[in-house]
């Protein structure tokens, strides 16, 4: 889930599959380096940092490939935001390295404030492998905050292989086990990612389908396939002609599908979803089914956890039922 106007990767990151693979590789590399260094040879990184616009890339973007980074936008002038930071700092210590807390004073970091589309403070976001997601705004009970943090940590591990590095005396007594060899499914998925990264869309599509044939529930393969098929559909398209055709013929389902694809690739997620929901609403039979299935495909590209997908699913249900 991306905050509005996030300049680092746009509203939709069509390289999310690549980012996930790179994040897993970086996380494993960092863990290997820590094992080689041995306990006590390198100082533990701080669990709470004060981030600025100048340090954002190093302290947040780069670090988010190794550990979930939680950003708290706050100001000393609002008591509620000071209290929330106190809670988050205590939780960062309790979680002992499973996430890092970065605090950003909104008055000293107006550019970050605008890039994340923050509406007010306190506001809390997470960054995983360079991908930002809004968590919550305003005060919240500590038990609800811990539930959100647990979800962030789970998503970081499941999607990106990022597990952080717990700190404490048990590190020396319980060394991390050696990484296991990659499974055939993981090797096939890596080959699919490589094909997508190289621009071999047909090869990537077939590779992802091969993975899904053996493992139909593989979320990463589903996402990769949806992205590869989307890129294949818009490849070589003339945006002006596509949009003009859609505007001239609202009832032309093919024109609306093509325009929705371009909307999504251009980062206009809500526009793409709304266009297809409207198309479903005013069509019947096979045309309605085509629009509905394309909308479900685009949901796969964005991911089920994105609130825009949840909103569009609700809108789709209203027009269908």
Structural features, described:
This protein is α/β, with parallel strands linked by helices and 321 residues long. It folds into three domains: 158 residues, Glutaredoxin (3-Layer(aba) Sandwich), CATH 3.40.30; 55 residues; 86 residues, Serine Threonine Protein Phosphatase 5, Tetratricopeptide repeat. The protein is built from 14 helices and five strands. Strands 1-3-2-4-5 form a five-stranded mixed sheet, sandwiched between helices. β2, α3 and β3 form a beta-alpha-beta unit. α9 packs across α11 and α10 packs across α11. The longest helix has 22 residues. The two termini are 28 Å apart. The N terminus is likely disordered. Belongs to the thioredoxin family. It holds the Pfam family Thioredoxin. It comes from Actinacidiphila guanduensis.
Features:
321 residues; Serine Threonine Protein Phosphatase 5, Tetratricopeptide repeat; 3 domains; Glutaredoxin; alpha/beta; redox-active center; Thioredoxin-like_sf
Number of domain units: 3
Order of helices and strands: HEHEHEHEEHHHHHHHHHH
Count of discrete alpha- or pi-helical segments spanning 4 or more residues: 14
Segments where pLDDT lies below 50 for 5+ residues? Answer: 1-18, 39-43, 169-173
User: What percent of residues are in strands?
Assistant: 5-15%
**Cα shape:** globular
Distance between the termini: 28 Å
The Rg value, from CA coordinates, equals 22 Å
Q: What is the arithmetic mean of pLDDT?
A: 83
- Percent helix, as a range, is 55-70%
The CATH homologous superfamily of the largest domain is called Glutaredoxin
Number of strands: 5
Please name the CATH architecture of the largest domain. 3-Layer(aba) Sandwich
Instruction: Name the structural class.
Output: alpha/beta
Assembly of the depicted chains: single chain
Reported for the largest beta sheet, the result is: 5 strands, mixed
- As laid out across the biggest beta sheet, the strand order is 1-3-2-4-5
**What's the level 1 CATH class of the largest domain?**
Alpha Beta
User: What is the third-level CATH name, the topology of the largest domain?
Assistant: Glutaredoxin
């Amino acid at each position: 889930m991306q905050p509005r106007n996030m300049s680092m990767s746009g509203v939709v990151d069509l390289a999310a599959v690549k980012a996930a693979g790179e994040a897993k590789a970086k996380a494993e590399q960092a863990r290997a380096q820590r094992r080689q260094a041995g306990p006590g040879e390198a100082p533990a990184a701080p669990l709470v940092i004060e981030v600025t616009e100048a340090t954002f890339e190093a302290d947040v973007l780069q670090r988010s490939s190794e550990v979930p980074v939680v950003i708290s936008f706050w100001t000393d002038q609002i008591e509620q935001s000071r209290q929330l930071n106190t809670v988050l700092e205590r939780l960062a210590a309790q979680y002992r390295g499973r996430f890092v807390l970065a605090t950003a004073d909104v008055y000293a970091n107006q550019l970050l404030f605008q890039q994340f589309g923050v509406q007010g403070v306190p506001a809390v976001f997470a960054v995983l492998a360079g991908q930002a997601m809004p968590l919550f705004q305003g005060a919240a009970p500590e038990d609800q905050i811990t539930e959100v943090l647990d979800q962030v940590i789970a998503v970081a591990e499941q999607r990106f292989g990022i597990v952080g590095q717990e700190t404490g005396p048990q590190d020396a007594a319980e060394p991390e086990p050696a990484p296991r060899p990659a499974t055939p499914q993981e090797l096939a998925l890596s080959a699919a990612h490589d094909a997508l990264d190289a621009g071999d869309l047909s090869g990537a599509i077939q590779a992802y389908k091969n993975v899904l044939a053996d493992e139909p529930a593989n979320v990463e393969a589903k996402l990769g396939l949806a992205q590869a098929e989307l890129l294949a559909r818009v490849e070589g398209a003339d945006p002006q002609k596509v949009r003009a055709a859609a505007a001239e013929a609202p009832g032309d389902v093919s024109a609306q599908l093509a325009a929705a694809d371009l909307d999504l690739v251009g980062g206009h997620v809500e526009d793409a979803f709304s266009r297809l929901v409207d198309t479903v609403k005013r069509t019947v039979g096979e045309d309605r089914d085509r629009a509905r299935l394309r909308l479900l495909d685009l949901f796969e590209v964005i991911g089920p956890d994105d609130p825009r997908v949840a909103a569009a699913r609700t809108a789709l249900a209203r027009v269908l039922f």
